[in-house]
Amino acid sequence: MADFDTADIIECANLAPSVHNTQPWSFVATQSGLELFADGGRRLDYLDPTGRQLHVSCGAAIEFAYLAIRAAGRQCDVHPLPDPARPDLLASLQIGAEQRPTSRETALAEAIFRRYTDRGPYSDRAVPPALLVDVQTRCAELGVWVRILDNSADRAIVATILTDAEAQEAADTDYARELSQWTTVQPQDRGLPVDAAPAWPQDVVSDVPLRDFAGHAEHRHAGGIETPPRVERDTLLLLGTPHDDRDAWLASGRALGWLLLRATIDSASAQPLGPAIDLPDSRARLRRELGLVGQPQFLLRVGFGSGQPHTRRKRAQMSQPLA
Q1: Residue 96 exposure: Cα atoms within 13 Å on the Cβ side
Q2: Are residues 294 and 317 in the same domain?
Q3: What's the CA gap between 212 and 256, in Å, rounded?
Q4: Rg (Cα) of the chain, in Å, rounded?
Q5: pLDDT at 63
Q6: Would you say the C-alpha torsion 19, 24, 28, 32 has a positive or negative sign?
Q7: How far apart (Å, rounded) are the C-alpha atoms in residues 133 and 154?
Q8: Which pTM value belongs to this model?
Q9: What is the mean pLDDT of residues 33-45?
Q10: Across the strands, what pairs with 275?
Q11: 87 and 134 housed in the same domain
Q12: Is 288 in the same domain as 140?
């Protein structure tokens, strides 16, 4: 097998999703592989005071890097939080001997370049059951459970929590200030463009509120039209863990990264429903009102959209080859 550059792997990892597209990580090449460090300067002070969402974001980058290494035909062992003396070192990826990737690993790695967050309306096409089974199986291997919120009562609970959480955030000037720091008019390699949430058709509405990136918690209602709007019915997935520590956060991020790539293989899209898991009060309500056993870590909608990617990524900063 031909040698490959660490920059190729890092380019793939940088395509991972992250809260507000902060990409709060940096990579260092070592003799045996790669190390991923938390970039504290990209942590969100208001939405992420504990660093939980930073760890989830970094976990997704770890999974993307792992799959890129496997697709390149090398063994890879991931060691989360390998050195207590270096708390910013979130993972070590040890790259081993040549090993042919599975067809699934190859497909997932190829999906890295096609995956994007689609914040527009989704079609009525149902998410394939096989996709959901694959997601639950892989997430369980990583120590993460997946709850499919597919009944009206659960969706109503989620809608209420999302509405209340976003209203709480919008009422806080610190949230508005932070959001403005991470939304941009001109294309950049970090943050979110102001048009991250595209305009929806007048005859389509969502039954759960989607984040208003203007920070006002305002959402369009299809009023004033004669024909009742079509209510979009996507699939809501909630990821959680038995515990709520740094290991669990990283595992949730890896599970999320795998989920999004697996969905991409089937041409499905996804969008985070961040306000429901941003703040401790909202997460506590999810646990209580949904009767969860464990800690909710990430909520998202999955379906078949028709949008295009809107966000950009930072470039890899190194090109040291792996022998």
Answers
A1: 8
A2: no
A3: 22
A4: 19
A5: 98
A6: negative
A7: 20
A8: 0.91
A9: 97
A10: none
A11: no
A12: yes
